[in-house]
Amino acid sequence: MSSLALLVGIADHGSLSAGARSVGMAQSNATRAMKTLERRLGFPLLDRATTGSKLTQEGVLTVEWARDALQSLNTLWTGAQALAAPADREFTFAASMTVAEHLAPTWIGRLHEADPRIKTRLRVMNSSEVIAAVQNRDVALGFVETPDVPQYLSSATVWTDELVLIAPPGHPWATRPEPVTLKELAATHLLEREAGSGTRAFLDERVGTARATPIVEFNSNSAICQSVSAGMGPAVLSRLAVEGSLRMGSFIQVPLREGNLVRDLQAIWRGPAPAEGPAAMLLGICAQARSGF
User: Distance between CA atoms of 237 and 130, rounded to whole angstroms?
Assistant: First the structure.
């Protein structure tokens, strides 16, 4: 990954030498690293001249892929640290799958920046399990996707999410000119999340529980994305979970006639809002992220 960071540094700072300095690499090592990366990829990344090096067209495109890869690696590392934190000396919170995959790593990173002494442990479960964990005081704070938050729990919206309909490129919905209606959606066998998930609960509320039986149920957004890409059928998932695959053309977003399926992702806790400590800090970070700060 150091070679990808170097490539991004070259793009951001305008030269091989400046890019090497930005990642703390000697220029001689940077030159060898770029040649090795070009050999592995099979195409030139830099146009080299006596006046300096600049990115080729292939290099410009590769930089954008490298940015995504580095961001994904950072998300993996931050999330893995949270999952592996010792249970006896940390702040523990629970999050449903979509929140845990796509939002929580950034929040955790900012929490650690604010106070490196905080050891954060993330418990990943579906929304109904998060509610049970908060209700049973297993965790002080949880994040859910379901609209069915019990009235005895306090809550706050931390993100506005959109569910989108996706289909394989060869599916009839991928090329039809008319948007799909919610009635058609209800009558169609879909790839779905498991019962108890927030995505499933939201679909039940908006589309109805009298829907066609799922083609298959998964407890993973990634598994559904891969199955749609493989041509198994359509699905409805969070835009957070599908935007990368949509950019790559793995499947098609299909418009809905009734408009977008917008939902609130919520933080939940028992009693008054946390006034201090890691839970209060995390809620503040969530509010800032939602506001774009």
Answer: 19
